[in-house]
Model the fold of this input.
Amino acid sequence: MNKLVRWSATLGAVGASLFGLGIGGNLTALALPQEQILEKLDPVPVFTIADEQGAPLVASGENEAKVAGVFISQEDANQFVEQLKTENPELAEKVQVVPVSLGEVYKLSESAQSQENALNFAYVPEEEAVNQAKTIGEGTEQPYQGGVPLFVARGGEGKGYLTFEKDSKQVIPFFFDKQQLEAMVARFKEQEPEVAANVDIEVHPLEGVIETLETGSDEILEKIVLVPSTESIEFLQNISVPPTGETQELPQAAPNE
Done:
């Protein structure tokens, strides 16, 4: 999980970064290579329910498809296990919450596409984030259409994306946590009150952003970074790094429900 820990340290320095508005336009163009997509997804922790062998717990979806839940919130994953203790205590004794990188889930999902009866992953967003996305959608007449909400700010005459400096480059942060973005916008307004006067927050689903990374490649997409929620950052700061320095991996095989 070394990439995750390094990213949490980077986020701690954001408060001292220089902010700006730039890079307007829409998320469209050619495909990013998988390596670049993984660079964006690897630093984000997500949480699965796994058995004693580390294989994800699966349920039957439509057309008997095998589906494994991927929780954005560790607390939501823990609550699922607590509920399972009431509904199926025998199964609950055999499972646990396992943190993995979003990049690992993406790799498994990609490799499973060519397999018969492949395992599918369903992202489970935080309820508060969904409610916030719905509120924003009502205000902008762009209703929330489902998925895991990502929050990004745009403003200025050209409706450019709000950026901050990372590794001497300006990047566009997409936040899982709306409060984090609001704090960033507030700091930008202190730096550039006139420019920041008309900054708005938009919502893009994580699933749609990933699809766009696969099918689009321009200056905008290369600069996108995903910022884990405050809860996830606190998790990263408290974990111990395995001796190998590698992120937890999920086995390809999955048990039947």
Remarks:
- The longest strand covers residues 149-155.
